[in-house]
Structures
1.
Amino acid sequence: MTSPASLSSRIPGTLFLHAPGPTRLPPQVVNAMGTQPLELGDPALDTLIAACESGLRRVFGTAQSDVFMYAANGHGAWEAAISNLAAPGQCVVVAGSGTFSEAWALHAEGMGVRVQRTACEEGHAADAGAVAQLLRAESAREIVAVFVVHTDTGSGVTSNLQAFRDAIDAAAHPALLVADVVASLGAAPFDMDALRVDVAIGASQKALMVPPGLSFVAVNEKALNVARNNPTPRVYWDWLRRKSELSYRKFCGTPPQNLLMGLHAALGLVFEEGLAQVIARHRLLADAVQAAVQGWSERGDVGFHVREPKSRSVSVTTIAVREGIDPEALRTLARERFQVGIAGGLGSLAGRIFRIGHLGDLNAPMVLGCLAGVEAAMHASGIAYGPGVAHAVRVLAGPLEATRGEAALVEAALVETPAP
Ligand SMILES: *Cc1c(COP(=O)(O)O)cnc(C)c1O
């Protein structure tokens, strides 16, 4: 006799995707991507590309910068920044923030660029003071750029980009400020022009709710001039070749049309909700998750990996587990028994943490469902935890005015970038 459980492997309902990317695709994005590709000479293709460029400019908070898009993941956009800005043998500073800053540093070294790293203290934001010191001491003025990861997705830490701007200014150093905002774009406040970030790097599959495979850089005039003087041989990544009115040139070949259709739909959703509201929603949902983690931590088995609350990301929360608890077993249980997909630890954090992504196309009950699923998995694993979901409910059920007030504050802080 076959037992009912083995009759079907179908799992009803929804798998809750709570990795910090790729994130859930809104149906509007899925539908847009199901459209037939266009013939390469069709002016509708130029219109689509122009709309994506201007939408991305708004999200990046830049009026003047050029936006270049690549049929590539985020690592492709890293390579674009490295190959356009620094020649082999030249030097960049990478501010240590965790797994992603280290991967970016190794990527630059792999391309022959020399890297000076600032130390990364586990559970803390990147150290702008150390960058200031390094730049002040560098009298030759040969450092080309300072690379900072805004939200380091591996550790769940968000660093203060303004502090890095101030560090470069205080040292009166000509180095460019290059920010990886892959995990924070469209989730945390970011204003490229106000911060005088020279190059900003984003990708499709995080808060922008598009499948992986599309990445983009916003490049200001100062950075473009550095690229002009950079002799590094490059073709596919080259900003100057891509600075063209022809869509075939913009993409160094056939544009990834269906991803662009998805991006166009996603940007439409962002502007329909309002960028300030999207950012306020991410703040609120992050507050709910973090209130739950605070509650869970009362019994000592789990707790925050990131020490200062202000450095905790609005996109992903990293939860440290007591020695002896296997977060990978918890993840498997959460996924297979409770249909909640959460992330594990990368690099030196493997086996020590798990991560809950809370970015993109999410609302309050989805976050509550995820938290309840994680609680259920902790319960089934014998992990001790204090009340979490109840704390999250309290945050989410707080006065509506507080949420609206948050959006108004974000609105006031965002310098509205006019559509070009
Ligand atoms: C996801 C991510 C990347 C890399 O993206 P891939 O698409 O996996 O290459 C880079 N930086 C940050 C901060 C990220 O979160």
2.
Amino acid sequence: MGEQITQAQDLLRSLPGVDRLLQMPVTELLAEQYGRSLTLAALRYSLDNRRQAILAGNGREPDADSLVQEARTWLENLLAPTLRPIINATGVIVHTNLGRAPLSRSALTAVQSAGGGYATLEFDLDSGKRGSRAVHAENLLIRLTGAEAATAVNNNAAAVLLMLTALCSGREVIISRGQLVEIGGGFRIPDVMAQSGARMVEVGTTNRTHLHDYERAVTENTAAILVVHHSNYKIIGFTTEPPLADLADLACRHNILLLYDQGSGALLDTAPYGLEPEPTVLDGLQAGCDVVCFSGDKLLGGSQAGILCGRGGLIGQIKRHPLARAVRADKMALAALSATLAQYLTDRALVDIPVWRMIARPLPEIEAEANQWAARLQEEGVAARVIDGRSTVGGGSLPGTSLPTRLVAVEQADVESLAAALRGHSLPVIGRIQDDLFLVDPRTVLPEQAEALLTALVRYA
Ligand SMILES: *Cc1c(COP(=O)(O)O)cnc(C)c1O
């Protein structure tokens, strides 16, 4: 016992001091790469670690090289990016956990030029005076939707909050009990309503709400009817909800507003691709909604943003509210959004916007790619074959509907380990597991990532 204590004390005494470690040439290189103070912190961490180990009886002869190596590992781990690119082979097109919509090339170029230098964010080149950041996406949005006015904020959650706060605070807002939804990430309509200062008046039942339910709830204190699109859930069976046009008529008769949280930002019809029809932004405006709000990075396929379109006076009120400043969109989001909107205006959406290219991709093309991948994997000795499957839109849109696809199925004794190894790859691959098969959907794999995907599968399968 006594001998052990002396041994530990000897080991502790022989630990080099920070000063000595700092003078080593290898440490100087570290300090050049990571900065002096962070390197110092890393060395202290490494020495501390060794001290604890010695006191716990696990000490070994401390050598300076291994102490510095430990410091280097600590520095590398600390600074390793946590937001890393991955390959989405799940077949979920707008995958909320994987960053929703991938940006188009022209959106990326716009982000780079707006973010990498100075830009006319709030500057008017004609007058040489201060301009408004509001102008950037607005004209394109107005042109695209036919709305009188439009504005973009940080995300759609902010758009809903801002709309209710600016237009309904202190007054009543009527909403169907079938629409008191949680969107995900803790965004719950009743909570947002409370936060906005509006008083929520629930009408109808979970499955059925009629026009007369709304009509009976109107008082002299009513500011608006809010309609929230069933983005991420479906009520089937004995259900009814009045059409937007009937609600618009009712709102008009009672001189109250009809506000519509459309959610997905679909500007194109989803039906031609075999999906259920998703109400579009235009449907909402044409039905007579006063303000329609939606996300920029779901089916719109652009950057994170919340977009509000509608009547000029109301959008003006929304833009002037103090909260608007707190939820404004940044220059890179505005740049990407404008570039994406321009693609719709020039009929390039189906070709150039990744989300729509994936939705519209013909099945024979997916099948050809799946066959090619499977053949290549088989050549490399991987047990792979092509099977039928379904891709989904995701992002809390179009629940319960999917697109036919062809999957590459990799057979593996321990499919969970394969999935884990692929997640641990330098460019991680995320797929699906089903019936002991690892499934890869070509629909959501970006063309430039296909080669890396196959290389990873060959390596780990
Ligand atoms: C997604 C969604 C939101 C939240 O939008 P974010 O852009 O994620 O903030 C709000 N309402 C509906 C109906 C949605 O689908």
